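I wish you would study the pair of lines that follows with an eye to the fold:

===
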Amino acid sequence: MSCFLLPQSLCDELTETMRKFWWGERNSKNKIHWMNWELLCKPKQGGLEFRDPKAFNLALLAKQAWRVLTKLNSLLNQVLFGKYCRNNTFLQSKPRSKCSWGWRSLMAGKEVLLKGLFMQVGNGEDINF
């Protein structure tokens, strides 16, 4: 889940399997639905904190994108930048028509990362105009 973007159909199947575990049938009798599924997915204040597989997958991909963005000397970065980011930075790059599934997955994680990414100025020594 942390390396590749899962298809929506697989995420739906994972959610359905979790629901069947809690609400399935036993001895051809349906189990009691004590709470709404959305309430079960809420944080521990009122639910059981089940994770949405699609959102969890995107969060793990955003974590990988953050590693690519911050650990510039890693072997993975050197390979990816040599193949996909020759003329631009990671944040400016876009998925090409014939790129690998791993790169497309990183681009999906990058989109999630960009929603919460900001720059902290601090004392301003490292900022060039």
Notes: The radius of gyration is 20 Å. The chain has a mean pLDDT of 83.
